[in-house]
Design a protein that fits this description.
The protein has 120 residues and is α+β, with helices and mostly antiparallel strands. Helices cover 35% and strands 21% of the residues. Strand 2 and strand 3 form a beta hairpin.
Length: 120
């Protein structure tokens, strides 16, 4: 099995791309308020700075900066996705035998860009 290595930088800047499973979907822009709510809740629980965030119909890109004493970017991203999905499943009919999976399994792409931003 492939072992993924996460580059953890305390106070680092991270670029994310995440994609919905259905590439024809418009869920992200149709329910952008739910996404904003998920981000707000996560920022209250585990602070971070939003440097940039682009939401397109079926995918999104974000650059976030963590606090100086924190390198846990993955928990924040996972929580935002989970909250957004949970809120949508309250509105969208779900087959109990086939749970909703909105996100592509390999869709999260993360890159630490701390050195790049630090030199700009």
């Amino acid at each position: 099995m492939v072992q993924f290595r996460r580059n953890r930088v305390f106070g680092g800047s991270y670029f994310f791309t995440d994609t919905l499973r259905d590439l024809k979907s418009t869920l992200l822009i149709d329910h952008v308020e739910r996404l904003r709510e998920a981000v707000r809740k996560m920022r209250e629980a585990m602070p971070f700075t939003i440097e940039a965030w682009v939401v397109l119909p079926e995918h999104m890109h974000a650059v976030r900066i963590l606090p100086p004493n924190d390198a846990d970017y993955f928990s924040r991203w996972r929580s935002i996705r989970s909250y957004f999905t949970h809120q949508l499943t309250k509105q969208i009919p779900v087959n109990r035998n086939n749970p909703v999976s909105l996100w592509r399994i390999t869709s999260s792409r993360v890159a630490s860009i701390f050195p790049v931003l630090a030199t700009c």
